[in-house]
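Lecture 7 notes: from sequence to structure.
We start with the chain below.
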Amino acid sequence: MATARELRRKPIGELTVEDMRLLIRQDVGLACLLPLAVEVLRVDPLAEGDMYEGDLLVAVLTRSPEVWRQSPELGREVRLIVSELADVPSALKREVEGFLAR
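Predicted structure tokens for the same chain:
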């Protein structure tokens, strides 16, 4: 929580993939951060912060269904990004399948 508090003071344009991953996992600033994360994921769907390949994608995919109901166009973009993944790493398979099943 302390890290998330510190990151909220950081200019949004200076956030790293890891910063976005942490904030998104905490549901902080989703209205601003999810569009930025989707921009990153369009270029590199398996972008990684400090955890593992695709950790930003997992943070995005595991947001509550309510988030996607409020931003259906963003949800469609994420669905497109995920559906175009040629080879889903086994560590991400459950989250990808769960998101696509919604």
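Points to note: The chain has a mean pLDDT of 92. The radius of gyration is 13 Å.
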